[in-house]
Amino acid sequence: MANLIRMPEVAAGATEIVLSKWQVAVGDSVKIGDILAEMETEKAVVDYAADAEGTVYKILVADGATVEVGSPIMILLAAGEAPSVGDALLDGGAAAETAGVEAPPVAAPIAQPAAVAPAVAAPTAAPIAAPVTALTAAPIPAPIPSSNGERLFASPIVRKIGRERGIDLTQISGSGPGGRIVRRDVEALGAGAATEPMVQAAAPLAAPAATPVAGQLARQEYSSSYVTVPHTGMRRAIARRLTESKSTVPHFYLSADCKVDALLELRAKINETSPVRISVNDIVVKAVASALIDVPEANVIFTPEAMHKYETADISVAVATEGGLLTPVIRGVEKRSLSNLSLEITELAGRARAGKLRQEELEGGTFAVTNLGMFGTKEFSAILNPPQSGILAVGAASERAVVENGQVVIANVMTVTLSADHRAVDGALAAQWLAAFVKRVENPLSMLV
Q: Could you tell me if 6 and 70 are in contact, meaning their C-beta atoms sit under 8 angstroms apart?
């Protein structure tokens, strides 16, 4: 039996999906489970598998097209079916989408705007005529009340420009609050607005201009410019999720300083012999997972119905890409070796920057790590990624004076800030978890045994 394949909802709440690339062509045989196409959501690429079998008769959308969820994208024909069956299926699907939709009456909506048009046109003539009059108006020495006796509302810079350019401000309709004349109103008249007055004033001012006053600065004009960059789907998703997080999740923050001399020394020794280069961030992610196992009450997420308590440490790692921030999840971090963890983070980060993450790699996890230490940032606070209950912001390690056994010594210190969801993690519990993290970082060998 012929099948009309429609765009699936590959991500929760999505209304449009980008069909990134077809994996089949017209005439190919398809079995259940075969990959038909790559679908691009706001943050990931998803493989769409066939749930029916047959032969590809028609592909209805091109690579890279943005398609509404539920729209037809392909026709599959069963063995022995004629092409006319597929055409009829497509025609029937289009008819079904429009069936029962009654066309709204056309005459009434068209007649109403036509009747209103003359009334709208009349007011537009007067505002246009007023600035035209101002182009040839005689210069005025100072702002004066308008002809109807009302007070003239204009900013000091506007009054100054009016005097210099010989513009009659009483003839200008202000666009500022309450009809106030602002700078853009007089500048909108253009250079030609004061051509004649300025020429007349040039002769008497020519002599003083020949002998400039010592130390006098030339008048400078400043203007702002910008380029409009349309939002990408990823940027819209980031803005939406972070706004929801900050406005609906009760954040609170705890900070701690970690001495990382032992960590840096251990890392240097590992990298002397390890085929995989270990970063400070790899060890930090491992320490976060170890602390979650030490304090399992913090390894939770809040839902309206119940608290979900996890037995493994699934950690999101923030990755900066050209389009925005992505947070792929590494699962079971507490069970991984440092080399395995480093390889996984590197591989996920590379695919994140290339836009090749799968949707399931962005979902889940109870905790996240975001590190700006490589940019020299000393400390910062991060916004939670719901439904996760915590995110650790990691700053740069630097030499600082610390007191040890009554003596001031120099040590490498790293400041971290925990952002926590107060619905899931109380203050005392967050402090307990942070203390466990600091202990693991300052005693890194404990994570290797």
A: yes
**CA within 13 Å, CB half, 230:** 2
3-state secondary structure of 24: coil
- Kindly name the residue from 231, 251, 308, 422 that is annotated as catalytic: 422
- Helix, strand, coil percent content, the chain, rounded in steps of 5: 40, 20, 40
Over range 319-342, report the average pLDDT.
Answer: 93
CA dist 327 and 34 (Å) reads 28
Cα 162 from Cα 173, distance rounded (Å): 14
Residue 30 CB partners (closer than 8 Å, separation 6+): 24, 36, 50, 52, 53, 54, 55, 56, 76
Q: Is 422 a catalytic residue?
A: yes
CA dihedral 361, 364, 368, 370 (to 10 degrees): 30
pTM of the model: 0.62
DSSP string for 361-395: GGS--SEEEEE-GGGT---------TT-SEEEEEE
Q: CA torsion angle for 428, 429, 434, 435 (degrees, to 10)?
A: 70
Beta-strand pair 319-320/54-59:
unpaired
Q: Which stretches of 54-181 are DSSP H helices?
A: 83-98, 107-135, 156-165
Dihedral angle sign, alpha carbons of residues 276, 281, 287, 291: negative
Tokens of 118: 């003359």
* Three-state DSSP state, 435: helix
Alpha-carbon distance 355 to 248, whole Å?
A: 29
For residue 428, what are its two tokens?
Answer: 């005392």
Greatest mean pLDDT among 226-230, 233-237, 420-424: 420-424
Over range 76-90, report the average pLDDT.
81
Q: Give the pair of three-digit tokens for residue 388.
A: 């996760």
Of 281, 334, 327, residue with least CA distance to 312: 334
Structure confidence by residue, pLDDT tens digits, 14-64: 777 888 889 999 989 888 888 898 887 766 777 888 888 889 988 999 988
Q: What is the CA radius of gyration of the chain?
A: 34
Q: Torsions phi, psi of 185, nearest 5? A: -65, -40
Q: Quick one: tokens of 150?
A: 């009302």
